[in-house]
Amino acid sequence: MTIDASGLRRRTAELLDAQPPAGTDRLDFLRARFDAGLAWVHYPEGLGGLGAPRSLQAVVDAELEAAGALDNDPRRIGIGLGMAAPTILKYGTEEQKQRYLRPLWTGEEVWCQLFSEPGAGSDLAALRTRAVREGEDWVVNGQKVWTSSAHIARWAILIARTDPDVPKHAGITYFLCDMTDPGVEVRPLRQITGEAEFNEVFLTDVRIPDSRRLGEVGDGWRVAQTTLNNERVAIGGMRLPREGGMIGPIAETWRERPELRTHDLHQRLLKLWVESEVSRLAAERLRQQLVAGQPGPEGAGMKLAFARLNQEISGLEVELRGEEGLLYDDWTMRRPELVDFTGRDAGYRYLRSKGNSIEGGTSEVLLNIVAERVLGLPSEPRTDKDVAWKDLTR
Q1: 3-state class (DSSP) for residue 345
Q2: 87, 83, 156, 168: which is closest to 123 by C-alpha?
Q3: φ/ψ bin of 172: left (φ > 0), alpha (ψ from -120 to 50), beta (otherwise)
């Protein structure tokens, strides 16, 4: 049966009648919403969806927002929603989908991403973390770094080297790692902002059952591409209102503080405002393209624009504020559960945005992706493509 907008409104009304937001526990409401297929409507029935067009999710969201229903705090569980879920949906077994997707969406179980390593960030396929098969388990040893949310995560998406005798892209396998298992150690990484939202994770003889392998043995690089493509869309293609994101605070300051204005700052702000609006509309177009299938390399372009604009806007905001822009509100060491660009001061935005061109794929790597996969330019020479990983110079 085809699901249309009117059908979704009817289903949403039924949910609200059965579970009135004002008198229902938040978690109970989220579980009921998932079970009604109104979590992500384009997912299959039984997995939080109804097999409806992805574009109709906005219909459900608008009805629930108007009714005052609480959401699942998507910024806190963004890695699970934006990266783990679509990968599990595409490559997971039925048992894995049934086990992980519901508590992932409701926020009962937070996810993190164990991909980057010291020496294997931009060149992710050079990773050294090893997984060795022992009976029905894999024994994992290695180190991961720049891991957002590891300090609050129950689960992690993990890639590890299972065959060092083949070229680096071919010997990788993808796993689901329980962050509470023995041998998993999470250490904070304090950043230039004073906070430690990132972590380094040490894996020492961590045993992962083969039932938590995602995809085939040795096929982890292909599985990881689904994760990475979705990650770039999640970062660069988020839905924002006009003047949402980083451009909002500086535009507000410009209107409220006329004494700070100069002609030069005005021209630069206008340029960035227009670029932000273009980027916002391009992100909307990209989300519409997702209706037709999986995200492609275009997400790399959006993530590139996101990083550049954030850094340029935050730099201009500090300059606009003059001496005030050099102040910083709080250097306290803390381990936040999410990044809040607009909830802190201009100094925080300036410092934190420096990481935007590193996280989610460095801008240099994304430029190569755009050049090769979007523009069709010749690829860079790669001399290690057919060399066994164990024979690579390190």
Answers
A1: coil
A2: 168
A3: beta
Q: Residue 141 — φ and ψ, nearest 5°? A: -135, 135
Per the model's pLDDT, the better-predicted residue between 350 and 241 turns out to be 350
Residue pair 213/194 in contact (Cβ under 8 Å)? The answer is no
Q: Is the pLDDT of residue 386 over 70?
A: yes
Identify the burial level of 45 via C-beta atoms within 10 angstroms of its C-beta, where 0-12 means exposed, 13-18 middle and 19 or more buried: exposed
Three-state DSSP state, 189? strand
Strand, helix or coil for residue 367: helix
- pTM of structure: 0.91
**Which residue out of 197, 231, 298, 317 is catalytically annotated?**
231
Half-sphere exposure of 17 (CA within 13 A, CB side): 6
The residue-averaged pLDDT of 300-321 equals: 92
Grade residue 295 by pLDDT with cuts at 50, 70 and 90: low
User: C-alpha 248: how far from its chain's center?
Assistant: 22
Token look-up 């997995």 returns: 47
Q: Which residue has the tokens 């850094």?
A: 311
Active site annotation includes 256: no
The neighbour count for residue 44, using CB atoms within 10 Å, is 13
Residue 367 CB-half CA count within 13 A: 8
Q: Is the pLDDT of residue 361 over 90?
A: no
Q: pLDDT of 72-103, one tens digit each?
A: 999 999 999 999 999 999 999 999 999 999 99
Q: 114, 201 in Cβ contact below 8 A? A: yes
